[in-house]
Amino acid sequence: MEELSNIADNLKLLGDKTRLAILTLLKEREWCVCEFVEIFDMSQPAISQHLRKLKAQGIVKENKRGQWVYYSLHIEDKSYIQAVLDQMPDSKTILSQLNKTQTNIVCE
Amino acid sequence: MEELSNIADNLKLLGDKTRLAILTLLKEREWCVCEFVEIFDMSQPAISQHLRKLKAQGIVKENKRGQWVYYSLHIEDKSYIQAVLDQMPDSKTILSQLNKTQTNIVCE
DNA sequence: ATATCATATAAGCATATACTTATATAATTG
DNA sequence: CAATTATATAAGTATATGCTTATATGATAT
Which of UniProt's keywords are assigned here (chains A, B) (predicted)? Predict the structure, then answer.
Protein backbone atom coordinates (compact mmCIF):
# COMPACT_ATOMS: atom_id res chain seq x y z
CA MET A 1 0.00 0.00 0.00
CA GLU A 2 1.35 3.37 -1.00
CA GLU A 3 1.90 5.88 1.80
CA LEU A 4 -0.54 8.73 2.13
CA SER A 5 2.24 11.30 2.02
CA ASN A 6 3.59 9.69 -1.12
CA ILE A 7 0.19 9.92 -2.79
CA ALA A 8 -0.08 13.55 -1.71
CA ASP A 9 3.35 14.31 -3.15
CA ASN A 10 2.33 12.82 -6.47
CA LEU A 11 -0.97 14.71 -6.52
CA LYS A 12 0.91 17.90 -5.75
CA LEU A 13 2.70 17.46 -9.05
CA LEU A 14 -0.69 17.33 -10.81
CA GLY A 15 -1.64 20.56 -9.08
CA ASP A 16 0.24 22.74 -11.51
CA LYS A 17 -1.41 23.96 -14.70
CA THR A 18 1.60 23.26 -16.90
CA ARG A 19 2.32 19.79 -15.52
CA LEU A 20 -1.34 18.81 -15.62
CA ALA A 21 -1.49 19.82 -19.27
CA ILE A 22 1.73 17.94 -20.02
CA LEU A 23 0.37 14.76 -18.46
CA THR A 24 -2.92 15.12 -20.24
CA LEU A 25 -1.16 15.50 -23.57
CA LEU A 26 0.92 12.42 -22.76
CA LYS A 27 -2.26 10.36 -22.60
CA GLU A 28 -2.37 10.54 -26.37
CA ARG A 29 1.26 9.87 -27.32
CA GLU A 30 4.84 10.59 -26.33
CA TRP A 31 6.06 14.14 -26.79
CA CYS A 32 9.54 15.61 -26.91
CA VAL A 33 10.73 18.54 -24.83
CA CYS A 34 10.88 21.00 -27.70
CA GLU A 35 7.24 20.38 -28.52
CA PHE A 36 6.23 21.33 -25.00
CA VAL A 37 8.42 24.42 -25.17
CA GLU A 38 6.52 25.52 -28.28
CA ILE A 39 3.10 24.67 -26.95
CA PHE A 40 3.42 26.31 -23.58
CA ASP A 41 5.30 29.35 -24.77
CA MET A 42 7.59 28.91 -21.82
CA SER A 43 11.38 28.74 -21.52
CA GLN A 44 13.11 25.45 -22.22
CA PRO A 45 14.57 25.21 -18.70
CA ALA A 46 11.13 25.72 -17.18
CA ILE A 47 9.75 22.77 -19.16
CA SER A 48 12.81 20.70 -18.43
CA GLN A 49 12.42 21.27 -14.71
CA HIS A 50 8.76 20.26 -14.77
CA LEU A 51 9.67 17.06 -16.58
CA ARG A 52 12.48 16.36 -14.17
CA LYS A 53 10.07 16.54 -11.24
CA LEU A 54 7.64 14.23 -12.95
CA LYS A 55 10.42 11.81 -13.76
CA ALA A 56 11.85 11.96 -10.24
CA GLN A 57 8.54 10.67 -8.89
CA GLY A 58 8.23 8.06 -11.58
CA ILE A 59 5.17 9.58 -13.24
CA VAL A 60 6.82 9.88 -16.63
CA LYS A 61 9.69 8.07 -18.27
CA GLU A 62 12.09 9.33 -20.88
CA ASN A 63 13.25 7.82 -24.11
CA LYS A 64 16.24 9.36 -25.88
CA ARG A 65 16.34 9.15 -29.65
CA GLY A 66 19.09 11.11 -31.33
CA GLN A 67 19.27 14.54 -29.84
CA TRP A 68 15.64 14.43 -28.78
CA VAL A 69 14.24 13.20 -25.49
CA TYR A 70 10.73 11.85 -25.65
CA TYR A 71 8.59 11.59 -22.56
CA SER A 72 5.70 9.20 -21.92
CA LEU A 73 3.41 8.31 -19.03
CA HIS A 74 4.49 5.79 -16.43
CA ILE A 75 1.44 5.49 -14.22
CA GLU A 76 0.43 1.84 -14.55
CA ASP A 77 0.90 1.42 -10.80
CA LYS A 78 -0.77 4.71 -9.82
CA SER A 79 -4.50 4.27 -10.13
CA TYR A 80 -5.32 7.66 -8.62
CA ILE A 81 -3.36 9.43 -11.34
CA GLN A 82 -4.97 7.34 -14.03
CA ALA A 83 -8.32 8.23 -12.49
CA VAL A 84 -7.60 11.93 -12.76
CA LEU A 85 -6.26 11.78 -16.29
CA ASP A 86 -9.28 9.74 -17.35
CA GLN A 87 -11.41 12.72 -16.40
CA MET A 88 -9.31 15.23 -18.30
CA PRO A 89 -10.29 16.58 -21.70
CA ASP A 90 -8.52 15.42 -24.85
CA SER A 91 -5.36 16.96 -26.30
CA LYS A 92 -7.28 19.13 -28.73
CA THR A 93 -9.20 20.77 -25.92
CA ILE A 94 -6.03 21.27 -23.89
CA LEU A 95 -4.25 22.83 -26.83
CA SER A 96 -7.13 25.16 -27.56
CA GLN A 97 -7.17 26.29 -23.95
CA LEU A 98 -3.49 27.12 -24.38
CA ASN A 99 -4.43 29.19 -27.42
CA LYS A 100 -2.18 27.23 -29.71
CA THR A 101 -2.82 24.73 -32.44
CA GLN A 102 -0.78 21.60 -32.72
CA THR A 103 -0.01 22.33 -36.38
CA ASN A 104 2.40 25.10 -35.43
CA ILE A 105 4.79 22.83 -33.61
CA VAL A 106 8.01 22.08 -35.41
CA CYS A 107 11.29 20.96 -33.84
CA GLU A 108 14.05 20.35 -36.31
CA MET B 1 -16.24 22.63 -19.18
CA GLU B 2 -14.08 23.47 -16.22
CA GLU B 3 -10.89 25.39 -16.95
CA LEU B 4 -7.61 23.51 -16.83
CA SER B 5 -6.12 25.97 -14.37
CA ASN B 6 -9.17 25.60 -12.16
CA ILE B 7 -8.77 21.82 -12.13
CA ALA B 8 -5.07 22.24 -11.33
CA ASP B 9 -5.88 24.57 -8.45
CA ASN B 10 -8.27 22.02 -7.01
CA LEU B 11 -5.78 19.18 -7.40
CA LYS B 12 -3.17 21.32 -5.70
CA LEU B 13 -5.35 21.27 -2.61
CA LEU B 14 -5.31 17.46 -2.70
CA GLY B 15 -1.52 17.57 -2.88
CA ASP B 16 -1.11 18.12 0.83
CA LYS B 17 -0.91 15.18 3.22
CA THR B 18 -3.20 16.72 5.81
CA ARG B 19 -5.87 17.89 3.37
CA LEU B 20 -5.82 14.62 1.47
CA ALA B 21 -6.37 12.76 4.73
CA ILE B 22 -9.16 15.14 5.72
CA LEU B 23 -10.95 14.60 2.42
CA THR B 24 -10.50 10.86 2.63
CA LEU B 25 -12.01 10.81 6.12
CA LEU B 26 -14.91 12.91 4.85
CA LYS B 27 -15.81 10.12 2.42
CA GLU B 28 -17.18 8.21 5.39
CA ARG B 29 -19.09 10.90 7.30
CA GLU B 30 -18.98 14.53 8.33
CA TRP B 31 -16.39 15.51 10.90
CA CYS B 32 -16.06 18.55 13.11
CA VAL B 33 -12.97 20.70 13.42
CA CYS B 34 -12.01 19.54 16.89
CA GLU B 35 -11.94 15.93 15.74
CA PHE B 36 -9.41 16.80 13.07
CA VAL B 37 -7.34 18.72 15.58
CA GLU B 38 -7.15 15.61 17.76
CA ILE B 39 -6.46 13.23 14.90
CA PHE B 40 -3.73 15.22 13.24
CA ASP B 41 -2.04 16.38 16.39
CA MET B 42 -1.80 19.81 14.81
CA SER B 43 -2.81 23.25 16.03
CA GLN B 44 -6.44 24.29 15.68
CA PRO B 45 -5.60 27.26 13.43
CA ALA B 46 -3.64 24.99 11.10
CA ILE B 47 -6.66 22.74 10.66
CA SER B 48 -8.98 25.70 10.34
CA GLN B 49 -6.87 27.17 7.57
CA HIS B 50 -6.83 23.91 5.64
CA LEU B 51 -10.60 23.71 5.87
CA ARG B 52 -10.95 27.31 4.80
CA LYS B 53 -8.97 26.62 1.64
CA LEU B 54 -11.07 23.58 0.86
CA LYS B 55 -14.25 25.55 1.45
CA ALA B 56 -13.05 28.50 -0.62
CA GLN B 57 -12.76 26.22 -3.63
CA GLY B 58 -16.07 24.55 -2.94
CA ILE B 59 -14.62 21.13 -2.17
CA VAL B 60 -16.17 20.93 1.28
CA LYS B 61 -19.17 22.58 2.84
CA GLU B 62 -19.75 23.48 6.46
CA ASN B 63 -22.69 22.87 8.72
CA LYS B 64 -22.84 24.69 12.03
CA ARG B 65 -24.59 22.95 14.91
CA GLY B 66 -24.27 24.59 18.28
CA GLN B 67 -20.70 25.59 18.85
CA TRP B 68 -19.43 22.94 16.50
CA VAL B 69 -18.81 23.27 12.79
CA TYR B 70 -19.14 20.07 10.81
CA TYR B 71 -17.55 19.67 7.42
CA SER B 72 -18.63 17.38 4.59
CA LEU B 73 -17.64 16.74 1.00
CA HIS B 74 -19.06 18.85 -1.80
CA ILE B 75 -17.61 17.23 -4.89
CA GLU B 76 -20.67 16.04 -6.81
CA ASP B 77 -19.65 18.25 -9.73
CA LYS B 78 -15.95 17.40 -9.58
CA SER B 79 -15.47 13.97 -11.08
CA TYR B 80 -11.68 14.10 -10.95
CA ILE B 81 -11.75 14.57 -7.18
CA GLN B 82 -14.26 11.77 -6.77
CA ALA B 83 -11.99 9.62 -8.89
CA VAL B 84 -9.02 10.27 -6.61
CA LEU B 85 -10.94 9.72 -3.40
CA ASP B 86 -12.38 6.49 -4.79
CA GLN B 87 -8.82 5.19 -4.96
CA MET B 88 -7.93 6.21 -1.42
CA PRO B 89 -7.90 3.76 1.47
CA ASP B 90 -10.66 3.75 4.07
CA SER B 91 -10.74 5.87 7.23
CA LYS B 92 -9.31 3.08 9.37
CA THR B 93 -6.23 2.84 7.19
CA ILE B 94 -5.79 6.60 7.15
CA LEU B 95 -6.09 6.79 10.92
CA SER B 96 -3.60 4.01 11.44
CA GLN B 97 -1.13 5.77 9.16
CA LEU B 98 -1.55 8.81 11.37
CA ASN B 99 -0.72 6.61 14.39
CA LYS B 100 -3.99 7.39 16.12
CA THR B 101 -7.12 5.43 16.71
CA GLN B 102 -10.50 6.93 16.22
CA THR B 103 -11.59 5.89 19.72
CA ASN B 104 -9.39 8.53 21.32
CA ILE B 105 -11.25 11.41 19.80
CA VAL B 106 -13.49 13.33 22.14
CA CYS B 107 -14.66 16.92 21.74
CA GLU B 108 -16.93 18.12 24.48
C1' DA C 1 37.14 20.29 -35.31
C1' DT C 2 33.63 23.41 -35.06
C1' DA C 3 29.07 25.01 -35.36
C1' DT C 4 24.37 24.06 -34.31
C1' DC C 5 20.53 22.11 -32.06
C1' DA C 6 18.23 19.76 -28.03
C1' DT C 7 18.29 19.18 -23.37
C1' DA C 8 19.89 19.53 -18.56
C1' DT C 9 21.70 21.85 -14.63
C1' DA C 10 22.94 25.73 -11.58
C1' DA C 11 22.11 29.90 -9.26
C1' DG C 12 19.17 33.55 -8.06
C1' DC C 13 14.80 35.59 -6.97
C1' DA C 14 9.85 36.71 -6.21
C1' DT C 15 5.90 34.63 -4.62
C1' DA C 16 3.23 30.90 -2.47
C1' DT C 17 2.62 27.76 1.19
C1' DA C 18 2.08 25.71 5.74
C1' DC C 19 2.94 26.34 9.87
C1' DT C 20 3.31 29.19 14.44
C1' DT C 21 1.45 32.41 18.29
C1' DA C 22 -1.77 35.83 19.57
C1' DT C 23 -6.24 37.43 19.37
C1' DA C 24 -11.15 37.80 17.88
C1' DT C 25 -15.77 35.89 17.44
C1' DA C 26 -19.53 33.13 18.71
C1' DA C 27 -22.12 29.63 21.21
C1' DT C 28 -22.84 27.35 25.85
C1' DT C 29 -22.99 27.07 30.68
C1' DG C 30 -23.18 28.39 35.49
C1' DC D 1 -23.22 38.59 33.66
C1' DA D 2 -18.50 35.96 33.46
C1' DA D 3 -16.13 31.72 32.24
C1' DT D 4 -15.50 28.08 29.04
C1' DT D 5 -15.38 25.85 24.64
C1' DA D 6 -15.15 25.77 19.54
C1' DT D 7 -13.77 28.06 15.67
C1' DA D 8 -11.86 31.79 12.80
C1' DT D 9 -8.70 35.35 11.64
C1' DA D 10 -4.37 38.04 11.71
C1' DA D 11 0.42 38.56 11.58
C1' DG D 12 4.87 36.66 11.28
C1' DT D 13 8.21 33.30 9.53
C1' DA D 14 10.74 29.46 7.44
C1' DT D 15 10.62 26.74 3.57
C1' DA D 16 8.91 25.36 -1.01
C1' DT D 17 7.86 26.49 -5.62
C1' DG D 18 8.16 28.15 -10.35
C1' DC D 19 10.15 30.96 -12.93
C1' DT D 20 14.39 33.53 -14.89
C1' DT D 21 19.27 33.85 -17.03
C1' DA D 22 23.61 31.74 -17.69
C1' DT D 23 26.06 27.80 -18.60
C1' DA D 24 27.05 22.81 -19.31
C1' DT D 25 26.39 18.50 -21.78
C1' DG D 26 25.62 15.75 -25.61
C1' DA D 27 24.22 14.54 -30.31
C1' DT D 28 24.34 15.83 -35.30
C1' DA D 29 26.02 17.93 -39.35
C1' DT D 30 29.38 20.41 -42.13
Answer: DNA-binding, Transcription, Transcription regulation
